[in-house]
Specification:
Largest sheet: 2 strands, antiparallel
Distance between the termini: 45 Å
Bound molecules: tryptophan
Radius of gyration: 22 Å
Shape: globular
Helix content: over 70%
Structural class: mainly alpha
Number of strands: 2
């Protein structure tokens, strides 16, 4: 534990909040949330999502922040140390391990998509979307992700920025970056919401996002064959509800050590409960604002709300190519995505870096470069698995390399990590120790404890069983 003595801290509560909100707000909010809401029928998905964020995600934020702060080490070091203090098995350290390894895998492909946002920012600025039609927009995207040189350059450019910031340390790197980037992010988002509100179909968007239609959320068409045969009926399905739970975890940066590591840089005077609420509120506000920025354009230009992952990269450019000031708006939009992605990717590189730093005692610069380049190389496999790129023919259980890593982290590592974290704080750390660590009012503590002890593990357990069932049976 060579680095433990000089373990860094945030310089203020504000700096910490900015960094944590920066971690939470990312591609998950601006790229994933709108298209998932689109597929889940809009308002009903949004409502269920918000319930999960506040009743399951926020208590988990509290759990991770408090574990990190109590341990004052990397997720692995903290978990081992707390398990020992509580006279529990050192195997609880596996929660730290799954976080650190999971974060390493996620950054490797998060950076690929981060690279796409950089490339699309440049494309937009160069006027590449002027008057393109749907076919050209699709061809543009597919030919870009199929290009081994372009995708390599953009992926390493993105990873390079991430390494640069992480190498400069907690106060000199992370804090400094977020204090510039987060206000920029909010400003751009606001400009885009206002622009969309005036030029796009705002009324329809508000109706879509806030007027819940639970049929859309809870039923899906029974099967493609039945639809083709003209006999489409709808069957009950919890798929989108579980999707909303997974998305709430991803969006809050839970279960991969990001939040626990950021918690380890906290001092004892910060109120963890209040901070968690602030982070969750800011994160959901940005997701909703992203929806308010994107859907007016989607509706005004007749794009498909249920388009999926291509919504941002294949549909929106069509609109940017036609709208007044489209070059500026498009460039700002992809710049916004890039900024959001960078402040998240630093929090994904941070858990592995803090662990290796602690273990080896190397200086931070060396660790950041080593881990960043290693993750970058692993990421090339993901980058090249897309479109017609060099590794696109490789299939792991029917998934591309990128999708396989996404499946492993999102569907296995994250739910298991979340489940065991909830069980740990709820059942294996003494109630008294948790109470002292959180220093909450009695009533607030009891609500948190109930949610962490019973509600979170049950909900996460259900989602995990469902995933395994679908994988094995479906
Ligand atoms: N929350 C980020 C987003 O919404 C991504 C992210 C950063 C993340 N750190 C994480 C996701 C840790 C899960 C776990 O894009």
């Amino acid at each position: 534990m060579a680095g433990a003595a000089q373990h860094a801290h945030w310089s203020s509560r504000w700096a910490f909040i900015m960094a944590a909100v920066g971690s939470a707000v990312g591609l998950g909010n601006i790229w994933k949330f709108p298209y998932e809401a689109g597929q889940g029928g809009g308002g009903a998905f949004v409502m269920v999502y918000l319930l999960f964020v506040f009743f399951i995600g926020t208590p988990m934020l509290v759990a991770e922040l408090s574990l990190g702060r109590r341990g004052q080490l990397s997720p692995i070091g903290s978990m081992k140390k707390i398990a020992q203090e509580e006279k529990r098995s050192p195997l609880w350290g596996l929660i730290g391990w799954s976080g650190v390894v999971g974060a390493f895998i996620v950054i490797s492909f998060y950076s690929v998509v981060g690279g796409w946002t950089l490339a699309y920012m440049v494309k937009s600025a160069m006027g590449a979307f002027s008057n393109i039609d749907a076919q050209t927009a699709q061809d543009t995207f597919v030919s870009y992700i199929s290009n081994p040189v372009m995708t390599l350059v953009s992926h390493f450019a993105f990873m390079g920025i991430t390494i640069f910031i992480v190498a400069k340390g907690v106060q000199g790197g992370l804090e400094k970056a977020v204090t510039y980037l987060m206000p920029a992010l909010f400003a751009i988002l606001l400009v885009l919401v206002v622009y969309s509100g005036f030029t796009g179909d705002f009324a329809k968007t508000v109706d879509f996002l806030f007027n819940p239609d639970f049929d859309e959320l809870l039923y899906k068409a029974n099967s493609p064959e039945a639809i083709a045969a003209g006999g489409a009926t709808k069957v009950f399905s919890l798929d989108m509800v579980l999707q909303a739970l997974g998305q709430s975890f991803f969006s809050l940066s839970l279960a991969l050590g990001s939040i626990m590591t950021y918690g380890s840089y906290l001092t004892r005077d910060v109120n963890v409960g209040r901070s968690a609420l602030t982070i969750a509120a800011a994160d959901s506000s940005v997701a909703l604002m992203a929806g308010l920025a994107i859907f007016p354009i989607v509706f005004a230009y007749g794009l498909d709300v249920a388009e999926g992952g291509g919504l941002v990269f294949m549909s929106l450019p069509i609109a940017f190519g036609q709208m007044p000031f489209g070059i500026v708006v498009g460039t700002l939009f992809f710049g916004l995505l890039a900024v959001a992605a960078i402040t998240s990717s630093i929090s994904l590189l941070e858990p592995p870096v803090s662990y290796v730093e602690e273990k080896t005692g190397w200086n931070r610069r060396k660790v950041a470069i080593t881990m960043g380049v290693a993750a970058g190389v692993l990421g090339v496999l993901s980058a090249y698995s897309q479109g017609d790129n060099m590794l696109s023919s490789i299939s792991i259980f029917g998934l591309s390399i990128m999708d396989a890593k996404d499946f492993l982290t999102n569907n296995i590592i994250m739910p298991l990590g979340g489940l065991f974290t909830a069980l740990f704080v709820g059942w294996f750390v003494s109630r008294k120790a948790m109470m002292e660590e959180l220093a909450m009012e009695d009533k607030t503590f009891r609500i948190w404890y109930f949610l962490a002890r019973f509600v979170s593990p049950t909900a996460i357990g259900i989602i995990f069983i469902k995933i395994i069932y679908d994988t094995v049976v479906g």
